[in-house]
Amino acid sequence: MVQIKDKQFDIYIPESRILERVSELSNQLNQEYATKEPVFISVLNGSFMFAADLMKRISIACHISFMRVSSYESTQSTGKITEIIGLQESIKGRHVVIVEDIVDTALTMSQLLVQLKQHEPASLEVATLLCKREAMQKDIKLKYVGFDIPNAFVVGYGLDYDGLGRNLPDLYVVKEEDF
Ligand code: IMP
């Protein structure tokens, strides 16, 4: 159990299980993008840990880029998207995989997909560690999903609660009575 500000969180997915799943996803990506020299775009801040563990297991030629969007305040999604750090390299004609920590309402990802499509990539897919299917308000294709999780607030492994908890190596879920 960990306490962050006013909330208590229980361990939900230990790091060892996360890394097993990350290895499976990277194996799949290594096969499917073997000859495509993909561009992985890590969506900061939340995906930094997932992206690092994933990329360490990617053995094919690839590029890694970062962009930052903000659509969340506290435990409620605002549905707003703010591009703070743009793309550093051209993705025109490239095979792009967006690396995200979590898809909740999917408002962020659907807007990100619209924006990135305007750059005319050869292909565009999503690799998200976590997906809250029940909370999704947009019908978007998520090709690579680590774990489908219930609609409850999680923290750790890169994800934060009011800026805290990103450094926790395991994933935690908020205690029922706190949600
Ligand atoms: P969406 O637009 O509702 O899909 O929200 C996506 C973003 O909200 C993610 O990239 C996270 O930064 C944040 N988010 C959504 N759910 C959680 C959660 O349970 N814990 C921490 N951050 C979350």
In words, what does this structure look like?
The protein has 179 residues and is α/β, with parallel strands linked by helices. The protein has a domain at 18-28 and 38-151: 3-Layer(aba) Sandwich (Rossmann fold). Helix content is 21%, strand content 37%. The strands form two sheets. The protein has a six-stranded mixed beta sheet with strand order 5-4-3-6-7-8, with helices on both faces. Helix 1 (15-32) packs across helix 2 (48-56). The radius of gyration is 16 Å and the shape is globular. The two termini are 15 Å apart. The model has no long low-confidence stretch (mean pLDDT 91). Inosinic acid binds next to strand 4, strand 6, helix 3 and strand 9.
Report low-confidence residues grouped into runs of 5 or more. none
Binned, the helix content reads 10-25%
Adjacency order of strands in the biggest sheet = 5-4-3-6-7-8
Described by the principal axes of the CA atoms, the overall outline is globular
**What CATH architecture label of the domain at 18-28 and 38-151 applies?**
3-Layer(aba) Sandwich
Key features of this structure:
179 residues; alpha/beta; Rossmann fold; six-stranded mixed sheet; 21% helix; globular; binds inosinic acid; metal-binding; nucleotide binding; glycosyltransferase
Summarize the structure.
The chain has 179 residues and is α/β, with parallel strands linked by helices. It has 3 helices and 10 strands, in the order ββαβαβββαββββ.
